[in-house]
Amino acid sequence: MNAKEEIDRLTDELRLYQDKYYKEGTSLISDSEYDRLTDRLMELEAAHPELAHPDSPTKRVGSDLTNDFPEVRHTIPVLSLDKAYSPDQVRDFFGKSIAKGGELLSFAAEEKIDGVSMVLYYEDGVLVRAVTRGNGEVGNDVTANIMTMRSVPLSLPEPLTIAVRGEVYIAKADFEALNAREPDEAKRAANPRNLAAGTVRRQKSSEAKLVPLRIFCYEGFWADRDQTPPDHLHILAKLKALGFTIDEDLAFFSNTEEEAARKLREAGIEGRAYAFSGLEGYIAGMAGARKGLGYEIDGLVFKINELDVRERMGYTEHHPRWAIAYKFEAPQAEAKLVGVTVQVGRTGRITPVAEITPTKLGGSTIRRATLHNQEYIDELELAIGDTVSISKRGDVIPAVERVIDKNEDGNTTFRIPDVCPCCGTRLEHIGALDFCPNYGCPDQVRGRIAFFASSDQMDIESLGPKTVDILYKAGMLGSIEDIYRMDPAAAAGLPGFGEKSAELLAKGIEESRDRPFATVLSSLGIAELGKKNAGILIQGGFDSIDKLIEAAEAGSVSRFTALPGFGEVMAENVIRAFSDPGLLATVQALRDAGLHMSADMDAKGEKLPQVFAGQVWCITGSFENFNPRTKALAEVEARGGRTVSSVTSKTTHLLAGKGGGSKRAEAERLGVEIVDEAGFLRLLGRQGKEPGDGQLTLF
Ligand code: IVH
Question: What residues does ligand 1 touch, defined as CB less than 6 Å away?
Fold first, then answer.
């Protein structure tokens, strides 16, 4: 048997098994035999790509190749719907349609599935392309992922050339089950629609296949007009006969209930028959049934049934005049995307930020919202000029939830430029993120300095982001180490800078020289090396910068991964950072400036006992001996403790000064140990001892 014959035979055989399995749930052969045949067919197709069938059953398997979702032009207009927010508006739509189309008009009412809009293109009965809606003219080709969905036919029983519109979604139960299996909370999808949108764009179709996506198909467009069924009901019936899944929860409205029932019967399709007078009752019923459905819907779609009337009514620029979407909820907050600002963070990470028309939400006016990364923008298919809905996630952070209306300017999905908006360096792509690899990029430099000086880090008073910017532009501050090299007095006279502010700056810098090693370490701005990990490193024996540099030089990943909670990625980051000549130069300069480069020593030059190791401290109120109170926190950290900003079940101690209300109450409720200032001083060994004595008395 030659390759062609073998490919044809295997294709037929596997197709038969798949049909039986997907449509009837029966397996004709064992899983291992099935896998063996599939592997063989994949091998042959790889060797003879010209002989592979475009709808080969191997397409269901999904591949490990990276998808790139090229933009393609739709061959049908992919319009969205005009919206109604009250039953009255739907009734108006009925009235206007009947005025134009005559008494005999009828309407289909369907669920408006909350998923991802998709167009499936078939040529001569074979699925050739699956394309997202995009801006209605241009969408992304996601064929490889869609082909893994069992409810999408790869070929049709007739050689038709058609386009089928549908909504790809994930059932509520499947969504819950998948999210429950994802241990990393940050990776869990916020809702079924987001998970469906993310899956449709998974880079590997072998991974997309693992998410049980489904599709409901609701419109069909025939290339050959003569073959087009006469009305919507017949289109749905035909789609079903061709193997597409349609939403069975259909309602149908005519002059009388009998008339509606007759039309459903004639088309051979299930549905509930209503007279026009039943509209309000139907809507109320669906609003009530919504929560109990197995999938999410955000409204109902009412469509004129007769295609000749549809054609006569035509389209506005963006919506068909023959259909309307009734939405269950009035829009939360709508805004227009007027632009996207691309920011460069201190680590070089690129973050696109949505600039929106000022929008009131939850008591504040929102102008900007993070868009996270290119992937997030792609999932939303977000373009400048689009109308979007805005929410406040967790009630604080504004987020762009979805596109409500596409722009009318022909803009396609926004793309982060290839080069850094600040320094013009070509960006690097790591996972879903973009990075500017230029360590000297001005935005990164300013970001690093501002981070180092921030109140959570070295806490340098009077050196906030704006001041950093002024000093940077004046050429006084070009790196972290410049903070200790420059002459703050020279700042007097710069824009917004008087003698007084220069003095405060000098004082702030001076005070910061005494911050503990843990603080210095976590302020360097090394990826993955925040306060928590700095604590883990120090407690794990890396209690000086020299020890870290030495281990990094040795390139010993295992010395880091031996520490509790330290993963390989973190280890590699730390090694890379402490091998970088730029960072090493900074460290040397900071050492020369007198900053602590090892865990704090007592007067005899011995390391402070790590008496707070494993403890988690929070602070409230004000103190006599610790002003600002961050000094008390520094003492905790210097002795191996961790500090947090709110009392939770993980907090072990609350350091309570004068005043302080809610944190104390919370600590009492949770049984967290409460320590007052005198008790804290005792723990530090500062009580009843003469200065210079050197001996620490603890407990
Ligand atoms: S009909 C010209 N029917 O809602 C035909 N759309 O804003 C227009 N949708 O883009 C679409 N369920 O993604 C239609 N039963 C349904 C639908 C439906 C969900 C989505 C679809 C469309 C959007 C309309």
Answer: 79-81, 110, 112-113, 117, 133, 167, 218-219, 301, 320, 323, 325
